[in-house]
Design goal:
The chain has 174 residues and is an alpha/beta fold. It has one domain: Leucine Aminopeptidase, subunit E, domain 1, CATH 3.40.220.10. It contains 5 helices and 6 strands. The protein has a 6-stranded mixed β-sheet with strand order 1-6-5-2-4-3, sandwiched between helices. The longest helix has 17 residues. The protein is globular and about 45 Å long.
């Protein structure tokens, strides 16, 4: 069962978001996405320090966790900028959802990882988020609080394209 059912577009800044997890990306050439530089400054250049010491490479699927006041931040490696396509976007969405579940985050604020706001990329990101939140727990015996099913209540996509989000939601839930 997928545990994310509500995905919407937002134009609100990550600083105004009430989400538990803020997700931004970095490419293999170590350039960050649109909100990445702002978040890096907010985190006292922790990302830059990680790049400088060789710990952050921008490899596709690479995840780095940072903490701020009342929020967690996920720096997601996106791979080669020139090869970034809808499948890369879908994988980024899936990695984001899996990370959110592991960290028990109930809400996600994710940027659209590229400069274009179009239907296909928004659809792919939405599909990845929803499909990545899937957990098969039908025959799972709950032993303690750590075993409880985690629900991601919502995901907000910065500058997402609403028709693409609607299509992605329909496709992933069918």
């Amino acid at each position: 069962m997928a545990y994310l059912t509500y995905v919407k577009s937002t134009t609100a800044s990550w600083t105004k978001s009430s989400a538990n997890l803020v997700v931004f990306g970095i490419f293999k050439d170590q350039t960050m996405t649109s909100i990445g530089n702002e978040i890096n400054i907010h985190l006292n250049n922790a990302v830059t320090k990680g790049i400088d010491c060789g710990g952050i490479k921008g490899k596709e699927g690479e995840c780095h966790k940072f903490f701020g006041e009342n929020k967690r931040y996920l720096l997601l490696g996106l791979g080669d900028k020139e090869k970034f396509n809808t499948e890369s976007m879908r994988k980024a969405g899936g990695s984001t959802a899996k990370f959110a579940l592991k960290e028990k985050c109930q809400s996600i604020y994710v940027e659209s990882f590229h400069d274009k706001t179009d239907e296909t990329f928004s659809r792919a990101l939405t599909e990845g988020l929803i499909l990545g939140s899937y957990q098969f727990r039908d025959y799972f015996t709950q032993e303690d609080d750590d075993d409880k099913t985690v629900l991601i209540e919502r995901a907000d996509i910065l500058n997402g394209y609403a028709p693409g989000i609607t299509q992605g939601t329909s496709a992933a839930q069918s």
